[in-house]
Amino acid sequence: MRKNCLLCNNIFETCPARIKAGRGKYCSVPCYRKSDAQKGNANIGRSRLEEVRMKMSEARKGKKNPEHSLRMRCFGNPNWKEGRRVDRNGYIKISVRGKSYLEHRFVMERKLGRFLLPFEKVHHINGNRSDNRPENLVNILGQDEHIKKYHGVK
User: Fold this and answer.
1) Which of 106, 138, 139, 140 could lock 101 by a disulfide, CB 3.0 to 4.6 Å apart?
2) Which spans in 29-150 are helix H?
3) Cβ-based burial of 150 (10 A; exposed 0-12, middle 13-18, buried ≥19)
4) Residues 124, 129, 132, CA angle at the centre, nearest 5°?
């Protein structure tokens, strides 16, 4: 559809949907900005764009309401499970400072006061993988010792 620009009176092409939506009145962005300036709108062009970008970046950073972003990230969120989840083998995994640990190994490290070595195994005495109380956990040096001691294989 052909139409005349309201500012410079040039003929330009636009689609009927733009006209129906209240747009398609100007032939170009510079004509639109000039008409906006003539109407007396103070925030036009780049200054308005930069203002909007600053507002959006502030909102993204959470500077407007930091309590809200913290609350929705963990404690106040109804889906918050205290950083605990169950993996496909039935063991509980926890998040500590952004890193994921198997809870029974983490509890055993706290009990021993040192990090576990990769070959050390942690056995649940009652067989319940989600029962990670310190008194229910035993440290074992290797898989072969674990099998001999707790699964009856000699």
Assistant:
1) 106
2) 29-39, 45-61, 66-73, 103-112, 143-150
3) middle
4) 65
**pTM of whole model > 0.70?**
no
Q: Identify residue 136 by its one-letter amino acid code.
A: N
- Whether residues 88 and 74 share a domain: the answer is no
Together in a domain, 130 and 93: yes
Task: Tell me what the mean pLDDT of segment 11-22 comes to.
Answer: 82
The domain in which residue 121 lies consists of 84-150
Q: Tens of pLDDT along 86-106?
A: 889 999 998 877 788 899 999
Tell me: do 54 and 98 sit in the same domain.
Answer: no
Between these two residues, 118 and 64, which has the higher pLDDT value? Answer: 118
Higher-scoring residue by pLDDT: 85, 65? 85
CA-CA distances (angstroms) from residue 84 to 43, 50, 79, 103, 130? 49, 42, 11, 9, 11
CA atoms within 13 A on the CB side of 75: 4
Shared domain for 24 and 53, answered yes or no, is: no
Q: State both tokens at 67.
A: 């309590």
Query: What pLDDT does residue 92 have?
Result: 92
User: Is residue 2 domain-shared with residue 59, that is, in the same domain?
Assistant: no
User: Of 80, 101, 134, which residue constitutes the final position of a domain?
Assistant: 80
Kindly state whether residues 28 and 57 are assigned to the same domain.
no
